[in-house]
Design brief:
Blueprint lengths: L6 H9 L1 H13 L2 E5 L6 H17 L4 E4 L21 H4 L4 E5 L17 E6 L12 E3 L6 H10 L8 H14 L10 H11 L5 H8 L4 H11 L2 E3 L4 E6 L1 H6 L22 E8 L6 E8 L5 H6 L3 E2 L3 E6 L5 H10 L3
Parallel strand pairs: 1-2, 1-3, 3-4, 4-5, 7-8
Antiparallel strand pairs: 6-7, 8-9, 9-11, 10-11
The protein binds adenosine monophosphate.
Adenosine monophosphate (AMP) binds next to strand 10 and strand 11.
């Protein structure tokens, strides 16, 4: 990359000098590289993964670079390519480098075969719960998205280039997890990385149209949410999407949270949640996406089988008998 990088970008490189060097050495050493991210992917999981995969392919065309994980219901193939169906043989000898992005917990890594890797690297912005990669982990909680951090690593890699395609993926991740540069996690560093990506000539108008494209059906779904939400005494709004309603609205469980931010800037609402029934046979539950204006809701998310960030976390309850206790915990934050 050019030597006239924005000083903010160089600051992450300085703070993580040792880890960045370990990751650089690992990338240079291995000919087979597989990039992993979390289950139920969002813009950031897929953007940071595909940005890195594209950057690796662009700069190391002699290496075999693969990507794993479940596809997203609407992002694939509209924004991201279909994930690959790699046979177990590929992993069996362990002669590959696993790079895990945007995931803090082992259980949330979308393909368990990362475990076979001789060497593991993790680049993430979630709180580090379990140690996945002993010697090469970068956990930067101040990064608004994993894409911001992974792009930072790539930009700091001397002599490497950032193509327009890789920049486009990273930009999608950054925009997604920073809520279009709106969340308080957005920093000078976020803008500095975005600036470097914009220099490649990406078309942000096209990116936004593709990311936030809506259908007439999705407007009807918003109408449903707006006429079925409730608010607790201290300003926690929530809506429930039982399985039969999801079918009626023609949405998947994953799409249940799509309207959660309708409540993001409403006077008197301090935190807001979508609560979506997941009839997954293995572990039926109600998946909760929690967002907050100011207070840190990650503690409540952790208590209720999840985790995440101060203003955006995920949790779950096993059935509706737990709903009131969960809502009470959240409501108590705003007493
Ligand atoms: P979501 O509500 O699924 O959009 O999640 C919001 C944020 O919390 C994302 O950054 C997720 O990665 C994170 N998150 C969601 N569920 C969990 C979980 N069970 N454990 C840790 N982090 C989570």
């Amino acid at each position: 990359m050019s030597s006239n990088l924005h000083p903010e970008v160089l600051s992450f490189g300085k703070a993580h000098k040792k880890e960045y060097a370990a990751i650089r050495r690992a990338i240079l050493r291995y000919n087979k590289i597989a990039v992993f991210r979390h289950i139920k992917p969002d813009f950031d999981a897929m953007g940071s993964q595909m940005g890195l995969v594209t950057w690796l392919k662009d700069n190391f065309p002699e290496k075999e670079v693969r990507f794993l994980g479940d596809n997203h219901v609407t992002f694939t193939p509209r924004l991201f390519p279909e994930t690959e169906n790699l046979p177990n043989d590929w992993f069996a000898k362990g002669d590959f480098l696993a790079i895990i992005v945007d995931v803090g917990d082992v259980e949330r890594i979308a393909d368990p075969r990362f475990q076979h890797a001789r060497y593991k690297v993790k680049i993430d912005h979630h709180p580090c719960k379990t140690e996945i990669a002993k010697r090469a982990t970068v956990c930067e909680k101040s990064s608004a998205s994993a894409a911001e951090l992974v792009a930072d690593f790539c930009l700091n890699f001397k002599g490497a280039k950032m193509s327009q395609e890789a920049a486009r993926y990273f930009y999608i991740g950054i925009v997604g997890d920073s809520g279009r540069f709106l969340f308080s996690s957005t920093s000078a560093h976020t803008f500095a990385v975005a600036e470097e990506l914009l220099k490649t000539g990406i078309n942000i108008n096209k990116i936004y149209l593709a990311m936030y494209q809506k259908t007439i059906q999705s407007l009807k779904n918003q109408a449903y949410v707006l006429s079925h939400f409730s608010v607790t005494p201290h300003g926690v709004s929530y809506y429930l999407l039982p399985y039969d309603v999801q079918q009626e609205l023609k949405i998947t469980t994953e799409q249940g949270k799509e309207n959660v931010n309708l409540f993001s800037n409403i006077e008197g609402i301090n935190a807001w949640c979508s609560i979506t029934e997941d009839v997954d046979k293995k572990e039926p539950c109600w998946r909760i996406s929690i967002r907050s204006k100011e207070k840190d809701i990650s503690g409540v998310a952790n208590k209720w089988g999840g985790g995440g960030h101060a203003q955006a976390s995920g949790a779950k309850i096993k059935d509706l008998s737990e709903l009131n206790a969960f809502l009470q915990d959240l409501d108590d934050l705003f007493r």
